């Protein structure tokens, strides 16, 4: 089941050379784990509800274990400070839903569950 690394990053107005180095090197850390960028701070976006400060980054992985192994890998851990010194943000790893997932089936399961 596909998993994702999702970042909501808040870059400083002027990016430092370290951020460019991070961006140049990250793909090499993703390749061994099957990671690929799905969204990378897309400049064109439309916030329809609430607020969305920052730049969205979504990286897809074949499995949750691949996402976790990438984030915990020595090559990626060495790059993290190049980003975090120059932009705050939140990063999470999350599993996707299986093929054929239906929100209505989840609603039915939750409706049938006894109250907590």
UniProtKB/TrEMBL annotation:
Pfam families for the chain: DUF1330
Domain of life (superkingdom): Bacteria
Segments forming domain DUF1330: 2-97
Gene3D superfamilies, A to Z: 3.30.70.100
Stated name of the protein: DUF1330 domain-containing protein
Species, as recorded: Streptomyces showdoensis
Lineage start: Bacteria, Bacillati, Actinomycetota, Actinomycetes, Kitasatosporales
